[in-house]
Each structure stands twice: as C-alpha cells, then as structure tokens.
Design a protein that fits this description.
The protein is α/β, with parallel strands linked by helices. Helices cover about 30% and strands about 25% of the residues. It comes from Mesoflavibacter profundi.
Length: about 140
C-alpha cells in the first residue's frame, strides 16, 4: 500500500521528492517509496539523508521504512558509506510482499549494523519503529 492510499496523512510532517522517489518525514520515522526500475546508490541516498538531517536536526533518533511498492535495486556495498558518514538509525523496516525485494534487503543486511525487519503491512512497520525509537510518539496506529 502506498502512503497516498493510507490513513497516514495527518502523521506526515514533511515530504521530500527526488528523481528517485518520495520520502515522507513523520515523528522520528522516514518512509521512502522509491521509483520503479532505479538503482539506488549512496550518491542518491545522500540527498535524502541531507534533507532528513535538515528537517530533524543534528540530534535525531530515526527509524527508516523502505515501503517497496515498486521494483528497484539497491547497491548494497553503499551501506558501508552510510556508516562511514555516521548517519544513525535505530531500526530499518522493509515493507514488501515480494520475495525478490526481501532478498535484496537481506543482501543490504550483510552490510548493515542496524536491525532490519520485514513487514507485510506499512502500519505494522510504523508501530515496530515506534517501539525502537526513543523520540517517536509511542501511540500505535490502527490499519
């Protein structure tokens, strides 16, 4: 389910749109919906990271949700650049029903120090992030 098709509109604090996709900023949670067919690299992710830091500030606690509503690939080795640049995450959720998409996330996990968890539901992913993130409003949402 795309965020546009959900009941999350009142929780969206800001939206960052790039050539690669859309990033929704919620209370302590960044949700991405990347475009069909792209290969997502560090250089492209840096733009979204800079926007998140500008929005949340330097002292942030964030969870990231990859809402994989489209097919795309990620360059897993770029996770090393992510950590070298000290971008901190409290958790990483992948929302997908596709086995190929989950396989790609498992490849990313090889390079990640962050807990990566799979969900079939965007709402379940958000609720999980709220339990992993000190700054989030702890109120769970209903699907």
């Amino acid at each position: 389910m795309r965020i546009a098709d959900s009941n999350l509109a009142d929780q969206i604090l800001d939206v960052h749109i790039t050539d690669q996709g859309i990033f929704y900023f919620l209370d302590g949670i960044v949700i991405s919906e990347l475009n069909e067919g792209i290969t997502y690299t560090w250089e492209e992710a840096k733009n979204a990271i800079d926007a998140a830091i500008e929005f949340y500030g330097d002292d942030y606690n964030l969870c990231y949700i990859s809402n994989r509503v489209n097919k795309y690939s990620v360059k897993p080795s770029d996770w090393l650049k992510f950590y070298r640049n000290n971008f901190r995450l409290n958790g990483y959720a992948v929302v997908t029903k596709s086995e190929n998409s989950w396989f790609n996330a498992l490849m990313e996990k090889l390079f990640s120090k962050v807990d990566i968890k799979r969900f079939d539901s965007l709402y379940d992913a958000i609720n999980w992030c709220k339990t992993h993130n000190d700054c989030c409003n702890k109120k769970t949402i209903a699907s």
